[in-house]
Fold this sequence. Notes:
Blueprint: H1 4-7, H2 14-25, H3 28-40, H4 44-72, H5 76-86, H6 94-126, H7 129-136, H8 140-146, H9 149-169, H10 172-198, H11 203-211, H12 220-233, H13 240-245, H14 254-282, H15 293-304, H16 308-341, H17 346-366, H18 381-408, H19 411-418, H20 422-447
The structure holds tryptophan.
Amino acid sequence: xxNKTHTHAQWSSRTAFxxxxxxxxxGLGNIWKFPYMVGESGGAVFVLVYLCCIALIGLPxxxxxxxxxxxxxxxxxxxxxxxxRDEGRSPAWALVGLAGVLGSFLILSFYSVxxxxxxxxxxxxxxxxVGESAGVALGDYFGALLEQPWTLFxxxxxxxxxxxxxxxxxxxxxxxRAAKWLMPLLIVxxxxxxxxxxxxxxxxxxxxxxxxxxxxxxNGSVVLAALGHAFFTLSLGMGIMMAYGSYLGQDVDLIKxxxxxxxxxxxIALAAGMAIFPVVFANGQDAGSGPGLIFATLPVAFADxxxxxxxxxxxxxxxxxxxxxxxxxxxxxxxxxLEERTPLPRIGAALVAALAAWALGIAALLSFNLWSGFTPFxxxxxxxxxxxxxxxxxxxxGLGAIVFVGWFVKSEGVNQELALGGTGEMIWxxxxxxxxxxxxxxxxxxxx
Length: 448
Ligand code: TRP
């Protein structure tokens, strides 16, 4: 540990770190995925289980990933290797890091398809196409979009090129500085949408739907979906937060910082829900319509608002930027891995990683049209990638990280990192050894 500051770059400040971590966490998961999952999984029951998962499982795992990264001072695989060696444990723990590299690649492939939708909507809002069709027939624009493989292909490709360019040229710093201004704008846009929602007839029903639970809807698959989404939305289980933690100075308080990131991420997701459901109910749309929910719903609100075209364009542009700051964090682990394990230079590594994810993304977008009949395990490629990562890989690798920190890193090491004492230490130990790991296992086993 003695040479840490000499060998490895560090974040310029705690703020820079919080921004990068929040940039990774806040993305399509909050604004696109969270509302449609709430809609599909019975509303408030899902929201409440999700909040418990975030607090009792997500937060401690976020802290654990940063902790391993900061002690390991390297990419996720090497960090796990180094810390397990230091602690006299099996090097097989590095498999947790390896699973992360594979998983982030799988997520990026379908994430880019949705990023492409968001880009298409930015363009379509600016040129009026989205608004026109929203006035005529609800949801038609989105339905028509899914039926055009070449259009989907074009926007998916564009989104991946931009992601690649940012990672390859290392203009990340610029993007993160931009995000510092744009993220608050996104929150303002959500608040305006919520304000619009209060003027519709659907607002009360939306609040009920999101916050007053109908317990009869609780079942294993809802709980697993909520757990998986807690991992997805906090960017956990893929070693990304571990990588970010490796650039972290010793002076940063991991628990406090994790709390900030988690609160921001959760507030944005809840706000997205409250922005969307009033419009859904006021227009008699189906809350459980799946991945197209925000894309079919919001244009209706924009079409109805004064200056809605401008506002709609702005909203989807901000959503695209939030998606990009997450996408670059997904491309990073694969790029870093290829760069360190193959003779490829950084640009080459980023290119190979982006090309591979792009190719797999094509299979995902074809599952909405030409390949809609191809359903291994009863799911199309898009849903399969989503299910495999969010419901299986993220919880399992996250479990690996917390079990490792809870049971296999000596308590002196943990105390040194977390600077806890007395009650705090006891709570941490109970949560990291029992509550979080048992939580993941119980959810997992009961849903099978
Ligand atoms: N958290 C991001 C979102 O909510 C997506 C994401 C970025 C992610 N990096 C990740 C998900 C790593 C899982 C693992 O949109």
